[in-house]
């Protein structure tokens, strides 16, 4: 950035010259220092630009010299394999100048390496390396480690056969040799028994055999040997020697296949952020980041073998591509060790063993030079003697309003006779309502450009016509809203020229000696655009300070003008905006600014562009030093919002309800739709979505989550086309997949696979045994997919070895530490999101360790129940036991209480965690009741009666005790069945169906019981006193029986004796209710007992009611069953997610560090609800449903209505000459087809533009 927060400088240092530069870079970019003229500056510029070419030391066809550089750039190793001697060179001085090299004497290694004869021009491959200094800085002697290795022809054949990658281990068989009297240890790499071998990844083997098929770039961490990222780099072009470079902050990686094109990728998400095509036939030799990762230096070779050095200024609109000095350099493709590089350095060695640094010779050529302007006036200066020089500007005040003097001082270019004048703009800070002090300065002779310095903003306005003014530039200090009045801008220096100014300001928030520099215009448009985005954020925090419609209109007008500046830049420089989005926090600022349509334009364009992609999601923000110093403790926790959150999270947290919250929720919808649309091409587009999902529930945007999980991208990204199945699938998973084709989620193999014979564990052995018995003849590898949700299953709680972590609190800060998967599972009230393959795969992955924990509890419960059953059986059977058998029963008591207390303690922990609400569910209530009741029954009845002499021989039982034990056993068996829900998905679904049917039909059952209660009461009134003499007409039914003997002869008769008091089915209310309830079993005790018309009539009426109710209940139960059966799988996943949440929060003692959850979950197979889920996806796609449709239809304005204005006087007038020194010419040599398509009129217009610029420059020189 050009604007810097700096320490105060000494007087007169503004114009001091230091090594050809002025004391202030900002002033140097605008004004000409005193004592200089334009002609002299132009001459200096030409001398700088047209220096002689760099004659780099050349490595021609010679293969004898090799070079290596230490990681810190201080030590060099040169080696000649013909003479078998090496030298160590040390660079002294902070600048690491190669002219200041300390060289050691040569060391011979001919005792270790024999000179090999060449056969068919083939030679040995040499690899050399040198370390940093290993001795402390306090010691005078400097020691470094040197490695020299040779790979012979025979070694190459071995490697080709076995395909190993070597990783050197510590060895006890080191050889000690002496080099010039110094003892040195060597290790022979041919001794393979001391080496650890790794298989090449299958995809890498294919690419090594056929370079045309290179599709991906895999980034490995050499410390862990794990793959960190995958980049899709295939562009259908031919592949040469691949070129790589990484930025110093390790945020960006550069890749080129070696021809024509170079691409930039963001490391954290693997997405391409920029590319540059240099034309057909162009070979790319080297590239490197310089200038704080803002410039990429590139060395290319044209088809005519012409070498060029290019500087790609990534964040610059004026000199995007700049030619450097000519260089004479030849790259030897066979002897790759004749060149060595580290970040920022490229070292070569020539045939004479001399070394040269290519980048050091070129790096100073990347700076931009710009002509300065004459100083018109030093308006304000800390040195009062300089104010008004070289000319004083007349002053006036803005015209008074309502007889109130305005505190608006104006500096003019013309001589005035009035004390009050009317400026172009008077108050462009509409949130301020008082008459505050402000300053304006006209920047041109016609007074059409006005600089406005307010309380917290600096603005430049231009008069475009008699009635129109346009905003050219705005800068804000972004102080807290409540502190703006006391932290107003204080001007230290104000210098103006023709259409330019330099301003040094501070405010009370800054420390003593700190200030901020603002200027206009800048060398390019990047910094002003960044300031414009700052202004949108600044205005947003002041929207509640507006008073009256006029202020509101002025505020909206200001937002529109700022948005227009940003829109126009994006339209003309979309590629620069895309890089700015990576470098700066501009997207976050635009989102906070609340300009919905501008956000939509950034994300989707105007619908005409393909692959717009101007915004890239990021988790980690670029470290902007200036912004970090400047913005602190701003209003509404702005720093926390921007530094710790993604752009999506910022948008969500601004949705705080009300009209403004509803309007801002549209931005959230735009972002989610944009990310999901692009994620079909690469999973990196959803890198920020996972962390934001729980916050969507918090801010009542859960509908977005449900719709998001019905996007096609959620089914997973097919990675099988990029990475081979065997390279990423663990052996246990690969074997188990041959047993069954069901969905399996797994943590992919990211490390290189060792060639050592792996150790088989029990599960792997059983799986292989199963396959031998039931072989699966399918040899096709399944498709591997990746859930595109980054860190979806990662829990943020650090697990310490041997230290239990206890239950988590349900407080917000503790809840947020759980994985996004668990958070949304607990927050979601429905079942729709659980139908998606992503949720099933993620829960499938997390369920295995949780199930193992619950299975251990199940085993404990089985042992506990078995102990109770044995003890209860011995108690009820009055078992007599003596001696060893009695001792075994006593041991059984001990085990019983141990298991019981263990289970009770587990339930106690659940109670303290969830409270009584946990036991509202029947299954959880039985979990607790089964343990408590059995312990109570045992402690009160069984344990006290046990005798160590004869066990239970002398006890006396009662029917009530027997019944209590029986019911307890029933509860224990019920708990046993419920425990199976942890282990069997089928039983869990059945239990869910039963419980859901009960929940949905309990009102019907209650109504039916109420009908039975009514009928019971009616029969109670009718039959309770039927034994009274006056109710003798209510006669009971009698049954006569005829008794026959074996010969069939009647030997007598028997008649039933009915007691109206004792045998009455409605003698009391309880009996009457049970008798009526038995109607449900198709028995009618009242009608069977009495022969009375009223009993028959009531039975007929009541049975009709119950039959209707029963059929209604059955019909409703079937309907609920069908609906519940469809939800059964989703309900199972939701239930398991709750169990996983409990498991992750339990006390866990880890005897070894637990494995880390992967960033992405991989899975194979097809989810059970995939077809139903896909139907929902296809229906939405057919209807072209967008996430923002529901909100956007209520918006009056859904697209930007800006039209680009063609104004030559505006600094924002983009033309084809912005990249004035060769961006258009980069690919001219190789892209002939495009040149032929350019018509004659376009060429003439381009030449006319260049001629006009030359004529303007000549006129300035004449003046």
Automatic annotation (TrEMBL):
Keywords: Membrane, Repeat, Transmembrane, Transmembrane helix
Membrane spanning residue stretches: 789-808, 858-876, 882-905, 925-943, 963-980, 1001-1023, 1093-1118
One Gene Ontology term, aspect cellular component: plasma membrane
Ranges of Acidic residues composition bias in the record: 1221-1235
Name of the protein in its database record: Ion transport domain-containing protein
Region (Disordered): 1214-1235
PANTHER family: INACTIVE, TRANSIENT RECEPTOR POTENTIAL ION CHANNEL PROTEIN
Source species, domain of life: Eukaryota
A molecular function (GO) term: monoatomic ion channel activity
Biological process annotations from GO: calcium ion import across plasma membrane
């Amino acid at each position: 950035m050009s604007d810097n927060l700096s320490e105060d400088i000494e007087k007169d240092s503004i114009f001091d010259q230091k090594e050809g530069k002025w004391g202030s870079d900002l002033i140097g970019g605008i004004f000409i220092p005193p004592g200089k003229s334009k002609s002299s500056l132009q001459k200096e510029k030409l001398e700088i630009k047209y220096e002689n070419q760099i004659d780099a030391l050349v490595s021609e066809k010679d293969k004898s010299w090799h070079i290596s550089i230490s990681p810190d750039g201080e030590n060099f190793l040169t080696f000649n394999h013909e003479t078998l001697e090496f030298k160590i060179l040390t660079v002294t001085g902070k600048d690491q100048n190669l002219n200041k090299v300390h060289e050691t004497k040569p060391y011979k290694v001919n005792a270790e390496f024999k000179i090999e004869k060449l056969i068919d021009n083939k030679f040995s491959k040499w690899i050399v390396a040198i370390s940093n200094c290993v001795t402390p800085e306090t010691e005078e002697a400097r020691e470094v480690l040197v490695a020299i290795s040779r790979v012979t022809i025979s070694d190459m054949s071995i490697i080709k056969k076995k395909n190993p990658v070597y990783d050197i281990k510590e060895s006890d068989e080191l050889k000690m040799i002496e080099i010039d009297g110094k003892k040195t240890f060597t290790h022979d790499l041919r001794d393979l028994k001391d080496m650890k071998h790794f298989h090449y990844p299958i995809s890498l083997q294919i690419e090594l055999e056929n370079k045309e098929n290179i599709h991906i770039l895999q980034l490995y961490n050499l410390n862990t040997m794990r793959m960190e990222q995958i980049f899709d780099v295939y562009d259908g072009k031919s592949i040469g020697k691949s070129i790589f470079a990484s930025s110093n902050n390790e945020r960006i990686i550069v890749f080129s296949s070696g021809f024509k094109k170079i691409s930039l990728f963001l490391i954290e998400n693997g997405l391409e952020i920029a590319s540059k095509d240099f034309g057909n036939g162009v070979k790319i030799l080297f590239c490197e980041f310089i200038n704080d990762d803002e410039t990429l230096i590139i060395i290319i070779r044209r088809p005519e073998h012409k070498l060029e050095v290019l500087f790609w200024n990534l964040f610059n609109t004026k000199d995007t591509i700049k030619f450097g000095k000519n260089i004479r350099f030849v790259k030897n493709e066979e002897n790759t060790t004749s060149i060595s590089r580290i970040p920022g350095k490229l070292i070569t060695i020539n045939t004479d063993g001399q070394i040269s640094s290519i980048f050091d010779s070129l790096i100073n050529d990347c700076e931009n030079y710009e002509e300065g302007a004459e100083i018109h006036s030093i308006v304000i200066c800390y040195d009062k003697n300089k104010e008004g020089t070289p000319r004083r500007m007349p002053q006036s005040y803005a015209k008074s309003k309502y007889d109130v003097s305005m505190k608006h001082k104006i500096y003019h270019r013309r001589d005035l006779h009035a004390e009050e004048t009317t400026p172009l703009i008077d108050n462009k800070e509409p949130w301020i309502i008082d008459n505050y002090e402000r300053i304006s300065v006209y920047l041109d002779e016609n007074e059409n450009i006005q600089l406005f310095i307010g309380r917290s903003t600096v603005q430049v306005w231009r008069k475009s016509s008699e009635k129109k003014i346009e905003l050219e530039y705005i800068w804000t200090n972004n102080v807290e809203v409540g502190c703006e009045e006391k932290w107003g801008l204080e001007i230290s220096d104000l210098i103006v020229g023709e259409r330019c100014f330099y301003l040094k300001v501070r405010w009370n928030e800054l420390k003593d000696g700190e200030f901020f520099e603002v200027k206009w215009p800048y060398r390019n448009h990047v910094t002003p655009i960044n300031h414009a985005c700052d202004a949108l954020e600044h205005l947003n925090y002041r929207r509640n300070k507006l008073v009256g419609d006029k202020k509101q209109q002025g505020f909206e007008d200001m937002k529109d003008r700022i948005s227009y500046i940003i829109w126009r830049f994006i339209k003309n420089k979309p590629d620069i905006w895309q890089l700015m989005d990576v470098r700066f926090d501009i997207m976050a600022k635009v989102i906070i600014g609340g300009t919905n349509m501008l956000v939509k334009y950034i994300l989707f364009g105007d619908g005409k562009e393909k692959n717009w992609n101007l915004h890239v999601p990021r988790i980690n923000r670029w470290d902007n030093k200036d912004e970090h110093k400047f913005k602190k403790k701003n209003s509404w926790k702005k720093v926390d919002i921007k530094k710790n959150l993604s752009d999506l999270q910022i948008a969500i947290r601004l949705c705080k309800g009300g009209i403004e919250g509803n309007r801002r929720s549209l931005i959230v919808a735009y972002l989610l739709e944009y990310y999901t649309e692009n994620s079909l091409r690469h999973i990196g587009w959803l890198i920020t979505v996972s962390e934001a999902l729980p916050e969507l529930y918090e801010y009542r945007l859960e509908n977005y989550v449900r719709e998001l999980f019905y996007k096609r991208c959620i089914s997973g990204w097919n990675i099988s086309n990029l990475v081979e199945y065997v390279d990423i699938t663990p052996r246990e998973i690969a074997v188990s997949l041959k047993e069954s084709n069901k969905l399996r989620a797994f943590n992919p193999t990211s490390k290189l696979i060792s060639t050592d014979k792996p150790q088989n564990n029990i599960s792997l052995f059983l799986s292989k045994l199963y396959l031998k018995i039931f072989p699966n003849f399918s040899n096709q590898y399944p498709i591997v997919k990746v859930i595109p949700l980054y860190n979806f299953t990662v829990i943020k709680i650090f697990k310490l070895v041997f230290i239990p972590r206890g239950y988590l609190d349900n407080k917000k800060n503790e809840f947020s530490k759980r994985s996004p998967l668990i958070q949304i599972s607990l927050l979601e009230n429905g079942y729709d999101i659980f139908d998606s393959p992503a949720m099933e795969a993620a829960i499938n992955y997390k369920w295995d360790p949780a199930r193992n924990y619950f299975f251990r509890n199940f085993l404990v419960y089985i042992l506990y129940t078995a102990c109770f059953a044995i003890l209860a059986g011995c108690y009820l059977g009055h078992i007599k036991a003596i001696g060893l058998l009695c001792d075994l029963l006593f041991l059984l008591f001990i085990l019983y209480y141990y298991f019981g207390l263990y289970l009770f303690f587990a339930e106690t922990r659940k109670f303290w965690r969830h409270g009584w609400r946990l036991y509202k569910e029947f299954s959880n209530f039985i979990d607790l009741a089964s343990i408590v009741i059995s312990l109570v029954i045992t402690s009160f009845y069984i344990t006290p009666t046990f005798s160590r002499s004869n066990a239970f021989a002398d006890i006396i039982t009662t029917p009530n005790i027997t019944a209590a034990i029986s019911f307890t056993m029933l509860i224990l068996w019920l708990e046993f069945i419920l425990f199976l829900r942890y282990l069997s998905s089928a039983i869990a679904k059945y239990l869910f169906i039963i419980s859901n049917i009960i929940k949905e039909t309990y009102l019907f059952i209650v109504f039916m019981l109420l009908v039975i209660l009514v009928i019971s009461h009616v029969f109670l009134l009718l039959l309770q006193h039927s034994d009274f003499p006056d109710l003798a007409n209510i006669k009971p039914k009698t049954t006569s029986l005829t008794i026959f003997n074996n010969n069939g002869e009647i030997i007598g008769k028997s008649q039933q004796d009915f007691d109206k008091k004792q045998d009455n089915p409605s003698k009391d209310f309880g009996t009457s209710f049970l008798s009526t309830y038995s109607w449900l079993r198709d028995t009618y005790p009242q009608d069977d007992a009495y022969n009375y018309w009223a009993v028959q009539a009531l039975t007929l009426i009541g049975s009709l009611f119950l039959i209707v109710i029963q059929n209604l209940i059955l019909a409703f139960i079937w309907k609920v069953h069908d609906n519940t059966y469809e939800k059964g799988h989703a309900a199972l996943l939701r239930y398991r997610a709750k169990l996983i949440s409990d498991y992750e929060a339990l006390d866990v003692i880890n005897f070894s560090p637990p494995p880390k959850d992967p960033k992405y979950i991989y899975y194979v197979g097809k989810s059970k609800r995939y077809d139903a889920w896909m139907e929902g996806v296809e229906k939405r796609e057919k209807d072209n449903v967008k996430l923002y449709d529901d909100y956007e239809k209520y918006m009056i304005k859904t697209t930007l209505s800006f039209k680009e204005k063609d104004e030559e006087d505006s600094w924002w007038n983009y033309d084809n000459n912005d990249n004035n020194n060769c961006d258009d010419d980069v690919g001219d040599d190789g892209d002939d087809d495009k040149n032929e398509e350019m018509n004659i009129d376009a060429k003439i217009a381009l030449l006319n533009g260049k001629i006009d610029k030359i004529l303007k420059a000549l006129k300035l020189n004449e003046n």
